[in-house]
Amino acid sequence: MNNEIDFRHAVNDMACSRITFDSDYIVVKADQRAYQFVYEEYTRFDKLVADDDVERFYRYIENEDAPSEQFVVVRMRRRDGVYRPCLIIVLRRAYPVNGTKHTDVELRDIVTLNARYKKMDLDVRKYRSIMGMLAEYFFEYNPSDGMFTFFCYRGYRADNIEKADIDEVLKRLIEEKHVDGDNIDKLYMLFEKIKSCEASFTVELETNIFRGGENYELMSFHGQTLYYDNELARVIGIASHVSRIGKATSGELSDDAAEKDSATGILNKKAMTDFVENKIRHFNETGRQEPFWLAICDIDYFKNVNDTYGHLFGDEVIYRFAQTIRTWVGDKGVVGRIGGDEFMIMLDGADDVTELRSILIGIREELEWAFQNKAPDYRFTTSIGVANYPKDADDYVRLFKIADKALYIAKEKGRDRFIIYDKELHGELEEEKEGAYAAHTCAELKPIAKAELASNLILLLTKAGRDVIPHVLDSIIENLNIHGITIYESDADGRIRTSMTAGRYNMSVGDISDIMDSRYLELFNANGINQIHNVKECEIHCPEMYDFWKDHEICSTLQFMIGSNEHVMGIVSFDIFGAHRRKWSENDVNTLYMIVKFIGNALES
């Protein structure tokens, strides 16, 4: 068995991966590192274990009384056929899922871990030496035991200035007058940010703690959270003399600080945009158009995260996602945050589309695993759109729009995926009159094709009734560029509740009886049609319904009433999500009106 590993590449090899299998050991989910370690497709996890180790493996997995810190070491077959010693740890054992039981395990390749340890040991020695050369101070907070430390490096050794419970340190700094005046409030603010484990923060104040109680000096404290194994491990930071970091007392940011996103530590929108634009300009001017990938990604339904878990947890998700992207991209590109939950990646170090896919899959899967302990009932996913320079475009604006179109298509197809733009598959970029991007997942059907579609769906409803309604809704979405469809039905108590949905709503659609008042019903014309190009038009007249549409990110809607205003039996709503509003054509209205009539008949039957 060959145990030799090049330390330079150890960090890119599989060290730790996560796998989920069912009670028959059939793999139901695995992260990208697991597939890289073993092989592209496999079904039985136990078949990868060496024959001499498999009984020991079974005993460990099936022992439900095993303590959580227990593990087993077995030999696992890699994708090249070589067996390597691996450490297996059960994360969640035999939990029920759809009538079977799933088990989550972490797989650690001991050979790679050993190589990585040696590399990290060398890195630690290197960075300690560098820190000893700096005239800077550092701080560390351990949230598990409340210990706080101020320290600096003298040569190769850490020298503690303060080390005690964080509340004791704060109390002593004030009592011993290491701060005074307005700086006391700033010190409280600094320690509150540290104790609350804010993802990233900066506080300036005057203190003499690093001067032995003499001469106050203006210091900038910059900190961030540090995670290990998906758990918050430390809050770490650096305390710098303001004059050393090039920051004037007027509060002007240095060039470096001005380029960083304060919440994540990666490039901000302006810096990221300037970097890509300058790169393209340089390539075009020199005639050396070296290819690179531009990717835009965001967190699916991020608003739900804030609404469900609060904004502090939302900030943590943003920070962790940024670090995940930065880790997977590494030195193969540059990462920036360009919006609330939107990020941009410039990838020029990927050898080919296979490596690109590997990186994107890794980002998706890392996010999905990241918060299993904190939010086990919520599935975190991301959608990513990718374009290539210069194949798809050789100017920044168009390249960005194509990547954005690919992101839009990824969302249209159900989110939790990446789309690498292909002109043959996805068509030309379409632009509205104002120049804003307008993506369409399918070509606009001609009137005669819409009539044919309506006839086929009506025939299907007539023959099969209610059972085929979900298929009819999916067909409408696919062919008529509708983003979401909801059918509301009146129950025995007369309340209007959601009966069926199709498409990708950002949250569940429930009971609308309380907001469907007389003012809302007045929006329907004599034919029972409510046609809204911009839902904001209803903000004053029907504020509750407007809030409902806004929460569900609906910008345009076309609704048909089943029954009458006096006796509403149901409503069918065709919705458009996002910011690109839709003007409903007469042909759209007539086509959907005919289909809805037969949906109503099927519901009644």
Quick overview:
The protein has 605 residues and is of the alpha+beta class. Helices cover 36% and strands 27% of the residues. 30% of the residues are buried.
Could you describe the 3D structure shown?
The structure is a single chain. The chain contains 18 helices and 21 strands. The protein is globular, with a radius of gyration of 29 Å. Helices cover 36% and strands 27% of the residues. A hairpin with a 4-residue loop joins β6 (137-142) and β7 (147-154). Mean pLDDT is 82; it is low at 1-13, 244-255 and 431-443. The termini are far apart. The chain has 605 residues and is an alpha+beta fold. The chain folds into four domains: 7-114, PAS domain (Beta-Lactamase, 2-Layer Sandwich), CATH 3.30.450; 134-259, Beta-Lactamase, CATH 3.30.450; 269-426, 2-Layer Sandwich (Alpha-Beta Plaits), CATH 3.30.70.270; 447-604, 2-Layer Sandwich (Beta-Lactamase).
